[in-house]
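subagent[fold] <- orchestrator: predict structure for attached chain, return tokens only, no commentary.
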Amino acid sequence: MTRTSLRSALGLLLVAGVALSAAGCGDDDEKSASGGKVTITVNGLPPATEAANHQRFLDNVAEFERLNPDIDIDAREGKMDPQTFSAKLAGGQLEDVFYVYFTDPANLIAKRQVADISTYAKDFPVVDQVKPDLRKVFSGADGKLYGLPYKNYSSGLLYSRPLFTRAGLDPDNPPKTWADVRVAAKKIAALGNGTVGYGEYSKSNTGGWHFTTELYSVGGDVAVHDGGTWKAAFNSDQGRQVLNQLKEMRWTDDSMGARQSLEWADLLQLMGSGKLGMYVAPADNIPTIVNQYKGNFADYGLGPIPDGKGTLGGGEGYMFNAKATPEKIRAGLKWLTFWFTSAERFEAENKWAAENKLPVGIPEPQIFTGEAAATQAAADKKYANVPQKNYAPFVAAMDSIPVKFEPPNAQQVYAVLDVAMLKVLTDRDANVDQLLADAEKQVNTILAGVK
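subagent[fold] -> orchestrator:
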């Protein structure tokens, strides 16, 4: 299945698996008297309202338990919630294995709220095939490993193939630079009838998220670690380039539409309606547009991020409760190994996804190298049910574009940067230099306590 859908369904497996590994917290530390079993708790079980995914998760847990009768998985709904995490930890209610975003591990490791799994991971060779930059996300300054990724993404340029064709553009050759984007957006907007050439966010932290992606694409940074502290780095030539181009496209070219102050769902809905030419997005937006906004897989292409000096990536994974026992950690790693080294497992999940009309073949960066990556790629190719040609430009460039992750305290930083994005899109007289200077002061305050 596509890296997105596949990981959704498979990620659940990981949840279970990781749960096994992390499972070592609470009074379940010792094997129960009934058969010497290890029981671990893990979150990430899809809610019952998502009937197919909920049942698939439970079916996979049951299969693993049949093959490993000494391990029981207690799967629970819910994921990482920063608002309740500390209380659950203090009250002994935190699952043995729990879901995190890539922005969570550094803080949890620094606070010693997660278990070191380094010693146990050595017994599972496939862990060494996780890409080094992703292992680093789950590693501490001491070099020890505290968790594992199960899904990641990187952003590219999502575009409407029908609008490209109508505007005289080649749908198999999307814009490679931001200058190309500007030219293409003007041609698409010239189609009229409310057609928007290029869409942009500026609300609910999505504007700051997109600013970060576009800044990375031209070689800039949002924040840098300097002298033991983090400092804002976007008040730069690259930061001015991003905002000035958006300002010119909005007011000089009139290629971005009059409606602004857009947030996440707005651009997906506009793309689904056939009225949007392009916007920056990860591949997982495509099935959402199709399923929620009546789009068609054949209509959407994905190209690399323009200019390609970098792109924003992120993802999800699982970490282990600091109280996890060796037995629970080993059980969890056994589950993960069961999943990632089994060609039959990949094929089974892709087959299930295809049979349940879930997309298989949406491009997403591999989390593995070597044999594990090849195994998964082969299974994805076998069951692909979405137009691979449409994503060929993105796939061809994916390994050559550096993936950079979110800055510390990302959501707070994004909220500040929303202001600058909104201003240039709603005020033709916006002062880009002043907007960046004001944002820099606020972000430096946000980053002051980050080490």
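orchestrator: received. Logging for downstream: The chain has two domains: 3-153+314-396, 155-312+401-447. Residues 155-312+401-447 form a domain with the D-Maltodextrin-Binding Protein; domain 2 fold (CATH 3.40.190.10).
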